[in-house]
Specification:
With 274 residues, the protein is of the alpha/beta class. Helix content is 39%, strand content 23%.
Length: 274
Amino acid sequence: MRVMSNRRRTSFPVVKSWAMGTSNRDLIVEQFTRQAVPYSKASGITSEDTLTRIVRASAAGPDDTVLDVACGPGLLVCTFAPVVRHVTGIDLTPAMLDRARELQRERGLQNVSWQQGDVHHLPYSAASFSIVSSRFAFHHFPDQFVVLSEMRRVCKPGGRIVVSDTAPAANKLDGFNRMELLRDPSHVRALSLEEHCELFARVGLPRPRIETYRMEGDVESLLQRSFTTEEDANRCRKIFADALADDFIDMQPRLQDGKICYAFPVAVLVADIP
């Protein structure tokens, strides 16, 4: 995975698309099969406040049809469902979709459907949905431009594109990505907030409305659900410890009750389809 990541400071490095081979697909499926249960139970990921923040930002209503791209364990899909007419979740990893179906059954939701597929080639007609969303997924995509272009294609005129993902400060992006590549082998590259906005512009979307917040936790719990090697986990621990002095990873690391805690920088970006 790391050979695909370009560390240049210029935006949008060229990386190999899933459509060009199976290596990225296999790595994503392997990692998220292992992470399906721990990821779906992590407190920051399951936070109702952060999930409903996205639904509110999308201005979702009873007439909307929603597609959630790289839906994972279905948390955002099942948060949209009580508010909208219908929600579809698409993801590459069968184990994540199994978890999503469990959550749907637990909540008794009927207006939900699931699709296994590669989000670089969404299997839907143009203008099929009024809201197209993606949460905590863009940093995993080898070709972010292609995915956002596909999201725009399947969204109706007058609809909304909603992307929520990590968004470290531009001057701390290299440190953040170095840490994440060690922690999560399926990580490709996080974008700064400026790069997210540039990506929206490149696919013909207006400048998005933006909300930001921090997702907090402790380093050891994060590493336990990351399935990295012990060697790379130790390197991550050292990065967090070194960052206590000047936060070169934009994670606001701090010591609390004998643990190093963090606060992931997260952005919610919403753009209207012209």
